[in-house]
Amino acid sequence: MSINVGQPAPDFSLYDEAKTKTHLSSFKGNNVLLLFFPQAFTSVCTKELCGVRDNIALYNNAHAKVFGISVDSVFTLAQFKEAQHYNFPLLSDFNKEVSRAYGALYEDWILDMKGVSKRAAFVIDKNGIVQYAEVLENAGDVPDFAQIEKTLAGLK
Questions:
Q1: For position 57, which CATH number holds?
Q2: I want to staple 72 with a disulfide (CB 3.0 to 4.6 A). Which of 29, 76, 125, 136 is the partner?
Q3: pLDDT per residue as tens digits for the range 39-62
Q4: What whole-number percentage of the chain has pLDDT above 70?
């Protein structure tokens, strides 16, 4: 399944690194940036999320809540967040349901790993409608943050 611009974002409930259940629907009235990433502590994922961390004011100014999502456990995500001082929640899609619902799941990945999140970005507006959708096949690529920022700026 793939998610397209203009359609309602699939709702979900996932636990964050602090073991708090997070419901996407509870953020209606806010813009949301979902960043799916393959695995904590890998070089590209770390660089991507550190870039978001370092530019969090840009997302705050756009009234956007940022969430990183991977299939890592809440325990791994807690260590990753602490090590990198991320200033936004990391959500565990350990059961792979949300990654699959958003069309952002490698069924087969490197080293015979099964069911790993693809690198992907979704901007969801205050009404829960997808305004930007990018799913990358190559885990070494990163989302087009210039386009993400442009999309968020248009939602103010």
A1: 3.40.30.10
A2: 76
A3: 999 999 999 999 999 999 999 999
A4: 96
Active site residues: 45
Residue type, 103: G
Query: For residue 107, what pLDDT is reported?
Result: 78
HEC profile for the chain?
CCCCCCCECCCCEEEECCCCEEEHHHHCCCEEEEEECCCCCCHHHHHHHHHHHHCHHHHHHCCEEEEEEECCCHHHHHHHHHHHCCCCCEEECCCCHHHHHCCCEEEECHHHCEEEECCEEEEECCCCEEEEEEECCCCCCCCCHHHHHHHHHCCC
**Alpha carbon distance 83, 134 (integer Å):** 27
Residue 108 binned pLDDT confidence (cut-offs 50, 70, 90): confident
- What residues make up the domain containing 99? 28-139
pTM of the predicted protein model: 0.95
The domain tally of the chain equals: 1
